[in-house]
Structure formats: structure tokens, C-alpha cells
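Entry 14: structure prediction run for Universal stress protein. Input pasted below.
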Amino acid sequence: MFKQILLPLDFEHQELYPQVVESALQLCHPQGQIHLLYVNSARIHHAAAPLMSHELIGSMDKTMEQQLADFMARHIPVAHQGQIWIKHGVVYDSILARARKHGADLIVMPASRPGAGTYLLGSNASRVVRHADCAVLVIR
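Run finished. Output C-alpha cells:
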């Protein structure tokens, strides 16, 4: 059983969310918490950076925070509800940093089937698996 579970969500793989949440709940200690993380990687792409004002980024963050809060309220029992974080940067680096900083003992994350691009560059999930200091469960 795990006491600090991190769920990095990107709302791209929503079809996997029921499995992600069910897995996290089954593995959660009776006094454990499930935390949600969204990583906004919009500003790391240099071509788009000048087009993104601080106001636009702030608005995106508020929208995402509300979506995560709604998700938490609907899917995570109150006794297991943890924190919600919105971070900016490279997705896998941000997931690993948040897991380390908060002392997560499990990361449960969705992942798509690998495509040609992921064979060359690697997916976020595969990088998290290789570099995490804690257990990682990848849901497909």
C-alpha cells in the first residue's frame, strides 16, 4: 500500500482515466493521499513562447486547476484527496521533480501506445519509469 500517490494528468488520454483512478485507489493506503499534477509545456516550445502572454498562461492555469479540482471531487474519495499542482516546463522533468519534492512513493500515469516519434525520442512515461525514485505504474 502506498501513502503518497501522484497522478500526472494531461487530459489527452482521458479514456484511460477510469483505470488510472481505479489502480491508484486499489493501491492507496487507508490513510494515503492521491495528488494531481498537470504540466503546462506550452512555453518550452520556443516558436510559441512569444505568443503566450502571462495573462493567457494564467488563464490557462486557472482553467486547468478548475478541471483538476472537478476531477478530484468526482473521482477521488474525500479521505484520499491530496493536493493539486500546476507546473510549467518539460513534462517528465516536472513529474520527477514534483514526485521527489513531495515524497511520492507511487506515480500512476496513463500512456499511449508508442508511435514512430516515441521510438526516437522516448515518451514521457518511459522517461519517468527510467528515472523515478519511486514505483511507477503505467496504464495503457
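Notes: The mean pLDDT is 88. Will compare against the previous run tomorrow.
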